[in-house]
Design brief:
The complex is a heterodimer of chains A (375) and B (76). Chain A is α/β, with parallel strands linked by helices and 375 residues long. Chain A has 11 helices and 21 strands. In chain B, strands 1-2-4-3 form a 4-stranded mixed β-sheet, with helices on one face. Chain B starts with a strand and ends with a strand. The chains are: A alpha/beta (375), B alpha+beta (76). The interface between A and B is medium-sized, with 30 and 23 residues.
Chain lengths: 375, 76
Amino acid sequence: MHILVVGGGMGGTILANNLARRLSGELEQGSAKITMLSASDKHMYQPGLLYVAVGKMSTSELYRDQKSLLESSIDFHVDPVEKFDMDNNSVTTKSGKKISYDILCIATGSRGHAEGIPGLAEHSCQFYTEADALNMYKTLQKFEGGKVVVATGVPHKCPMSPLEITFFLIDYFKKRGIWDKVDLHYTYPIGRVHSLEPVANWAAPEFDKLGVTYETLFNMKEVVPGKVLSEEDSSAEFDLLVTVPPHKGMQVIEDNDLGKGGFIPTDKKKLNMEGRENVYVLGDTTNLPISKAGSTAHFEAEALGENIAAIVQQGEPVRDYDGKVFCFIEAGDGKATYAMFNYDNPPNPQAPTSGLHWFKTAYNRMYWASARGII
Amino acid sequence: MSERILVDAKNTFCPGPLMELISNMKMAEVGEELELLSTDEGSAADIPEWINKVGHEIVDSFKEDEVLHIIVKKIK
């Protein structure tokens, strides 16, 4: 039984390690094999980019060698997939190799797509790649005050990031002693300041206390120098525009017609690609209406690891993914909170505390153990 | 007329039904219809508010087995 994992981000790595441990006997006997194909020999801790953008983390803390995170029984290759031939259970890689599989797991992730909104890439700062996060930090360092607008595209990775970057910007400007020279204006696509109502109910009064103005039902349509225009016929003027850009799935998903916008139609409980019983999808690559967040990929990987191992060993999956998501929320001023929910239970976040901020800070370093599947 | 796009946002909290609808509207072609399924009571008010503000069209809206169905058409 050959299990092929495409993508070496958080979801793919946790899944491959989980399977390698559950199937250690089969791997040793040669009755099962796990192969991972990735675009890079490095693994990035993507949530760290938010911290790099405001000078709270260095880029050297973002990376580990991918091979060092994987169980030694996993056959790892830096050779991204270019073609999926699902009718014949095979893929073709960039180097031209054709690889057959019995079970395929796709975890290729998503990417910021500022280019989807005219003028946004040219006139904004963002933090979804190392280069962009560093550029944002350099831009902030030169900023001496004025109108700052935070604007968010749809869909986007990590639903907490619009609030987190806003609170981090306030911390940053206060630390530099220029907060009194900044007018900070927060915009958000839906009718409150965050998707989660309890989080919005907490954040809006915080904004009021801090003097942050906000506008909801604001979806970016176009950005021109000094002004962002919305689909709702509104606009906001800025000296500095910070954006959480709209996201797309990876190009290879679109090129192979696997899903609109690069997101693959996925069964919300079984996590198989719709219409394909031996193809599973996890993390940002799915089209599921849940948070595109590392924790989502993590919990999906655990459910899939258990199921795929059960399929190999006894022919049937044993559990459903329950929609579990756990997100830290950095609230600025050295405090944080979290939101945890699944398909059946709504979140009930508590007031931010300094203890949770330090736990999040510790998690930033414990992540590597999480990717290895140790915690 | 192409097939109606189904946006199943039942029992989802984050990013939630309106954000899912906006996301799918962006990927849809002008003239296409989308059917949003939501169990969020707030959808009955906030979906029409956004649709009207942007200038799209509510085609139909009804509740069946505790699930709100809102059918919208992308106008621009």
